[in-house]
Input
Amino acid sequence: MLSKDEAFRLTRFSFEDLAESSAAARDEFSRAYISYSPKVFMPLTHLCQDSCSYCTFAQPPTSIDFVYMSLDEIRRISAQGISHRCGEVLFTLGESPEKRYEIAAAWLAENGHATTIDYLAEAARITVTEFGLLPHVNPGAISDRDLRALKEVSVSQGMMLESIAGRLSEPGGPHFGSPDKTPARRLATLEAAGRAQVPFTTGVLVGIGDTRHERIEGLLAIRDLNARYGHIQEV
Output
């Protein structure tokens, strides 16, 4: 494994040099195959309690056509996915919108759920039990309890670490006003997923204001957690 100092020393090389070396290592040690799995895309809700300045997924209530996807719509899209030979379903959503928007909390209550995660679990259960689609869920920064509950109805979970730079949450930063985007909260979720042995997808965002060294630190943090728990399946 590269040490932290060795990783930082690589920044002296150009992108072209690093790409050439990486390609050579890939060709020597692995087969040049690309695999893929057709999947259904399910944007469960576009509401989110966070206010990341770069985000184009999250929308305010005045800009959305639905608060949450209905179970009937989830079933309709699942059936359509099966007809196109999809084998998986990807659930995307905002983080805890019920904490910010009364309309989200009211919708959940009317449909028998206390939280977005509870509703996500029901939606995932339907896709796997009724249609045989394997659910991958991207619930964001969540608790140990929620991770384990979603593990019962999904084959994998995901959450971008985004950045290790806490200063991005300060006034003027892209994560200011986004309580779920602090590095401590993101890392705690990644570690909790490791303890629960949840197959996990994560990564960093490039170009939101962090430095190259901070991006390397983020990748090393992901590597170190995977070295402890072995649960990171994709970066």
Q: What stands out?
A: The two ends are 17 Å apart (CA to CA). The first strand starts at residue 39 and ends at 45.
